[in-house]
Amino acid sequence: MPFLPRVRLGAALALAACTLPAAAQAPASYPERPVHIVVPFPPGGIVDNVTRNLGARLSAALGQTFIVENKAGAGGSIGAAHVAKAAPDGYTLLAAFDTHAVNPLLYKLSFDSDKDLAPVALIGTSPLILVVHPSVPARTVPELVALAKARPDALNYASTGAGSSNQLTAELFKATAGVEMNHVPYKGGAPAITDVLGGRVQVMFVSASSVLAHIKAGKMQALAVTTRERIPALPDVPSISQFYPDFEARSWIGLLAPAGTPAATVSRLNTEVYRALQTPEMRTFFDAQAIQPGSGSPEQFGAFLRNETKKWGEIIRKQDIRVE
Fold it and tell me: Which backbone phi and psi does 3 adopt, to 5 degrees?
């Protein structure tokens, strides 16, 4: 390699830095202006509530406002598409729900979720609870199974849309228990829960955080949790694995950024998210909502996403799940 004089070498390095793509150059100080976090579901659901609480902690820690925007539709893919096409500068982020991992299997997307979005952090996971309206004459999983077998067209289950953890878990339950229930999809958790509370839909597999208050108030009947262990918030509610040993499911929330976002920015966000999750305010909020804080590097979150796609892809094919 030819020797370059010190002055010429410095000039060459400066020129190389100037020719790097803007997205590859991490800003000297991030964030320098408000950050927008897109929630791809309506206000009031688990993703919205968690993101708003996390955004408040990030705002306090980083000295810039984290603004939450709701862009609902198509199982979260409309909001995801908006972020995928945003500038890769760390100022537009996506709060993804479990639907994100399976949307490519169900929708014709305008973006490639693997190539156009970069994993940042797994925010948290939550068990699902099998709940029924109090008018349903079943107080245990075996009683619900017996009812569904005796009246195969009588039970409707709510979900937050095609490919959501609600639907996939219900379909896994149907296949495992050998029962039939009719699927009633909604555009988010809040409207689905409202109809279960009103008795217009009888059954739902729903994030624990979304319905604990309703269960304790007697407005919903909890039959089981979908994790192998019981949860502290509902110690008397058994696990479905008690009746079907191989059964297990969780919902999750994660943070993603447009692909090409500077690695330094992604790393800063990853660090600050997990630091925020350890604040007393977030720990209290998560404990009350039965949410387990996430952890791990962006790369580990990426591996988690790939595993979710593989696991639930098998259920989608087996149950022939399609977007209606």
Answer: -75, 135
